[in-house]
Prior knowledge:
CATH superfamily of the largest domain: Ribokinase
CATH architecture of the largest domain: 3-Layer(aba) Sandwich
Oligomer: single chain
Shape: elongated
Number of strands: 18
CATH class of the largest domain: Alpha Beta
Structural class: alpha/beta
Helix content: 25-40%
Number of helices: 15
Mean pLDDT: 95
Low-confidence stretches: none
Strand content: 15-25%
Amino acid sequence: MSDCQILTAAQMRSAEQALFDAGTNVFELMQTAAVGAAEWIRRVAAGRPVTVLCGPGNNGGDGYVIAHILRKAGNNVQVVAPVFPATDAAQQACALWGAPVQTSGRGVKGDVLVDCLFGSGLSRPLSAEHALLLRDLAARHRLVIAIDVPSGIASDTGALLNEKLPRFDLTLALGAWKFAHWSLPGRALMGTLKLVPIGVGSVTGAAQLVHKPLLNVPALDAHKYRRGLAAIVGGALPGAGELASEAAMRGGAGYVKLLRDAPSVGTDPGLVIDQSPIGDALADERINALLIGPGLGRGSDAAARLAKALAANRPTVLDADALMLLTPDMLPDNLPVLATPHDGELESLCRSFSVIAETRRDRAVALARISKMVVLAKGADSVIAAPDGRVAIVPPAPSWLSIAGTGDVLAGIAVSRLAGGNDPFAAACEAVWLHGEAARICGAAFTPLELAHTVPAALARCL
Length: 463
């Protein structure tokens, strides 16, 4: 899906070059982008005065064309440009505007400010003069809109290049999403996000935004084993395994077993507890996928259970304690594995697999490549990375998920999707979407068990 692809600044330049090679010139593309952006701004402004802040590059050129379109639509528009246009297309756009341009923001105020100072590709801080101009203008306008990427935010990482950047009410991504749109801390300043198409096609190797999966109801001749048997390996702390099992039972698998030594106390009567020795329980050839980690513990017995689970050679989800016990030599060759670390567990895995990288995304990508696992690096801006280089970025989920136990629920959903026949990357994408949607349905201040019980309602929205 081209509307779900996420591009680096370099990939975006290549995508635009493909349009130029096909016969579109820079100014024509600028006009296409400006028409789409101006329509959003016109609706937001609702006839109120608009100030457009233009920089020297093509992002500034977009601003001049936007100002021209809004003026034709009847808006009262003023343009502030501290630097004269530096590119041919931006100069052509400025000529199209054809009206006075203010070189400072002194005394400028209004209802809507449009930031076209710098867009994607910015990798260095704004000058002190430009940063102050942006802050002052934002403070004197009721609503602030960014074109492509807010000035002062690194488009490839979401890093804040300057301090005290303003908060934006709306950010209009041009042509494709950039990593900054979905990466903290920059994402937190961007307000509502909208994509303005400009004709960019699908880019090979582009990251993807996780979107609502399209799922099917079970076939008419389905039975529990055809829909998948998911087994959760229990450990020293029974509650986490039970939470994961509750989620797995509601995530689409036909049969869920909890493999542990102790009998069930107060769990769903539909959950099968297998108290056989772990080696015997794992020998069941009907098992389609395994989950190990929630409540496993970190002692010698836990390490032994992990080794046996991996030796069973079933598609496996590794979570929680299993990630702290895992070493490279424990992974069988060609075993489909989904690892679901939070930041602390990701740091431990990176040490074990000798990965050195800065950001969560870079760590996940490198770890997936070296370990041959699919890595779901959990956080406020989660990332899914596959050994073959595929990357998916997870849209923000409700912050009410930030309680103990919700990670166990996510792992349970993931093993359920894996048992149903998905590969680990697809299972991870479906699981994080269902997890976030269940949280949205729950609303505020829910328990992890309530979250697990809401998974069917989230799944129903995908049918």
